[in-house]
Write a structure and sequence with these properties.
about 5% strand, about 270 residues, 10 helices
Amino acid sequence: MSRRIVNRLLVGAGLLAAVSVVVLLGPGTAVAALVALWSVLATLEFTNILARAEIRLNRLLLCVLNVITVAAAYFNRLPGFLVAPLAVTFLAGITHKPPRPRTPVYSSFTVLYLGFLPAHLVMLRNAADGLAPWVTFFPLVLTWTNDTAAYFIGRLFGRHPLAPNISPNKTLEGLFAGLTTSAILAALWLSRLEPFSSRPVWWLAVTGLGLGALAHAGDLFESLFKRAVGIKDSSGVLGEHGGFLDRADSLLFVVPGFYYLLLALR
């Protein structure tokens, strides 16, 4: 096994262990703090990506707004409270000198992308109150399993590019492996958890397929920005795993999807 793969596995295992402890054993405040910390780190990485395209945003302001957005989720004030941080980004754009229309547009997008979307993990934790903590943990495990299966099967057997203009290394074989793994995991995992256990196995498997597709979409969505500026990773802080944004880009679509599914069933 190459050193690259070993390093990837070690870093991945460390991140998995840390997040698992917080989500499964920690209080809601710990989950909110973890999401807020990740949001700040990912915001810094994302604004660095935008800066390569000559789009320079107020990083401090965006970090503060995203932390406030996560805090609002903890106090069950989303999505209504979202109007406030978005209004701030527009006001900041109006007062910017010289005026640049794209500044408030990208600032608002950053709040939605890296504040509101990750805050859904906190909202999921609140919505799953009274249920097993494994409900909150499920979309994380599904995403990690999906990504891992897609990565290794794609490396070993990938021959047909999935989206060569966006992410040249992703393959249809990897996509199939990720979706299959997601379907199997959902059928096995959710069949033991309320409020999903009353659903037929095929329904749970289709749910896994849908969430797996969201994981791939989230990954490709971030790749759009990296591809536009000619970089592979949002940063190199996590070694072979890239940056903090790289490690959770898939979750940004999966967790909200699972959250709204849970709301529909409760």
